[in-house]
Amino acid sequence: MIRRLERYFLTGIIVLLPITVVIYLGVWIWNTSDVFFLALLRLLGVEVPAWLTPLLPALGLISTAALILLVGMLAGHWLGRQLLAGLEHLVNLVPLVRDVYNAVKQISASFFTRPEVHFSRAALVEYPRRGSYALCFVVQKVEDRLPPLPPGHTVVVVPTSPLPASGFVIVVPEEDLIPLDIKVEDALRFVVSAGFLLPGNHTNGRTTARTVVE
Fold it and tell me: Given a cut of 80, is residue 113 above it in pLDDT?
């Protein structure tokens, strides 16, 4: 009974955590965006009329979104990239700050960017020792492009959890790969959830995920 309650509690955390984070970020942006808007108006020397006060949160939200778009546009050009590179260099000089910055940057890149390389399928490979298996994503066949390896080898990426954007590349014989009858998206979900969301049975052509509660 206690074991089942622990599983229910853990499942509740898995379900509520992303929802709580999204709500918290939304409330935080709503409550603080008007401060940014007021600071911008004061910097420009503009006085805020009384009738405009109730609209400050909405105007702050719009101005914050405009600032994010502006930063995105600058980052897409050479000058913006140089400025960001200089800023990152300064941040990396501070030991604790650089660790937090790089961790948040890696998480953001994992969830908000679309990778250029698309994995063909998910599989299992016997790694790091005999009898244990690691989930991997098949990249491409080696053919004869990595001498002296003979044909019949495949390049795979073994992702790290919970950030699948990082990992390591290994080259294995094709016959050592165990194909998985799941979608790449389901395999990524499995990695991001640290193994808690297991791909379930196929129902009507769709794959459902089982949580830790069984």
Answer: no
